[in-house]
Amino acid sequence: MSAATEKIGDGTRCILAPTGNRVRILEEQPRRNEMMKKPPEKPQRVAARSPAKPSAAAAAVIMRCDVSADRSSDSSTSASSSGTGSIVKSAKTASSRRKENGNGVVRAAEGVLALSLSSAVPLPVKRCDWITPTSEPLYTSFHDEEWGVPVHDDVKLLELLVYSQALAELSWPLILSKRAVFRKVFNDFVPTSVANLDDKRLLSVRLLSEPKVRAIVDNAKQLLKIQQEFGSFSNYCWRFVNHKPIKSGFRYARQVPGKTPKSDLMSRDLMQRGFRCVGPTVVYSFMQVAGLVNDHLVTCYRYNQCSHDLDKVPTAEEEDA
């Protein structure tokens, strides 16, 4: 392969194209030479156009908009600053008051809290020592509503006498839980009905031992005789305390006796009249539950209530009337 050269002007140049040996006339070099000989042209500056002046009406509108915008921004700034200032001021005032009050604020809050708690949570009621938080509700209700309340109804007195006799074999909570059974078996303790009960039918129930069941029937028969003699079983019982209940005024449960001279006297008289299973301890339990004696402890809330009820006890003349 040969290389071809061509003399162009003052310079030569080899031409070797990929398609073969060809001689090409190049015009690039003369153009470059001419451009190098000419002086460089200075760039022309383009004059910036000044904005057209707005008309008088347009200028007035623009000025009004600017003034209103300035006023709104000033008002919002002042409002925000005033709001922030008031909040800061109130916070500072509250903190200063707290600092001035010191423990007074805490004490006042504690007082309000204690007042709210005292109004929401009732205080526990103080009862006799033998009534505890674990006592059965039935037993607690009996203490609050019946035990120690003066009784003058013969039917109710016979019922309470039977329960006092049953205490030798059963406890008060157990007796109260079987109260409905007692009333059904003994015909609601109506003296005439109890006196005519069949011993065999009563023994089949097995509510109490045989001696206790037979004693209840026999005592009901003797109670009918007392009604004929004294007008009522109530008159007979209340005459042992002069128709006025005895206020024991004990403070502690250990001070409450199992029997007293009054119960001894009443027990002997009952046995002389044919009553059975009526020892001094049984009789004193009967006197307590029937309200002949107020043995609620003085610390029990029922002591004053029963004492108030004792003032309403009718006399023998009032009962006969």
From TrEMBL:
Residues 74-86 have a biased composition (Low complexity). It comes from the Eukaryota. Pfam families: Adenine_glyco. The keyword Secreted does not apply. One of its GO terms (molecular function) is DNA-3-methyladenine glycosylase activity. It is an enzyme of class 3 (hydrolase). Its EC number is 3.2.2.20. Zn(2+) binds at residues 128, 143, 296, 300. Residues 27-44 have a biased composition (Basic and acidic residues). Residues 27-53, 70-102 are annotated as: Disordered. Keywords: Glycosidase, Hydrolase, Metal-binding, Zinc. This is DNA-3-methyladenine glycosylase I. It comes from Salvia divinorum (Maria pastora). The lineage of its organism: Eukaryota, Viridiplantae, Streptophyta, Embryophyta, Tracheophyta.
